[in-house]
Amino acid sequence: MFDGEGNKYCISIEGQITRDKALRLLDLVELLGGVTSSANHGVGITSVKKSKYDKLLAVLQKNFPLVWFSSKEVQIAYEQEFKEPISLSTVATYLSRMAGKGLLVKAGASNRLQYRIAPNSPQVIVKHHIPNEG
């Protein structure tokens, strides 16, 4: 599997595979940007629907273009926009990655972080592509 930055991940599982373990694996794959939430419902890894990362970026651009915001505010906006749950830890992870890439500016203590879209950040949604290995 490849993530949106071109990093390759190889996952090996040994032992009994349960439904719960498979769903946790799909959550990890989705967190890395390699699959959309629809894969959890049997659509498949190559689905063309937006990943949570892409959806989160769209929420930021729509709801917080010029203001500071918290992870909790983004979580609420995401859930209202897409009518699907997203954990606060997932939001915080994505916001941290976006800040690391220079898409966001962050400020404040670690338990009260605030973010805003970086002034020089491109206002486009990054699309993830998973090349076929064959």
What strand line-up does the widest sheet have?
Answer: 1-2
Distance between the termini: 12 Å
| Poorly predicted runs | 35-48, 123-131
Secondary structure tally: strands:
2
Q: Return Rg in Å.
A: 16 Å
CATH topology (fold) name of the largest domain: Arc Repressor Mutant, subunit A
Fraction of residues in β-strands: 5-15%
* Overall tally of structural domains: 2
Which CATH-level-2 architecture of the largest domain?
A: Orthogonal Bundle
Shape: globular
Class of secondary structure makeup:
mainly alpha
Give a description of the structure:
- 37% of the residues lie in helices and 6% in strands.
- With 134 residues, it is mainly alpha-helical.
- The chain folds into two domains: 1-47, no CATH class; 52-117, Orthogonal Bundle (Arc Repressor Mutant, subunit A), CATH 1.10.10.10.
- It has a two-stranded antiparallel ribbon with strand order 1-2.
- Strand 1 (104-107) and strand 2 (114-117) form a beta hairpin.
- Helix 2 (52-63) packs across helix 3.
Keywords for this structure?
134 residues; Arc Repressor Mutant, subunit A; globular; 6% strand; 2 domains; mainly alpha
Question: How would you summarize the topology of this molecule?
Answer:
Elements: H1 19-31, H2 52-63, H3 71-82, H4 88-100, E1 104-107, E2 114-117
Antiparallel strand pairs: 1-2
Helix pairs in contact: 2-3, 3-4
What would a concise description of this structure say?
The protein is mainly alpha-helical.
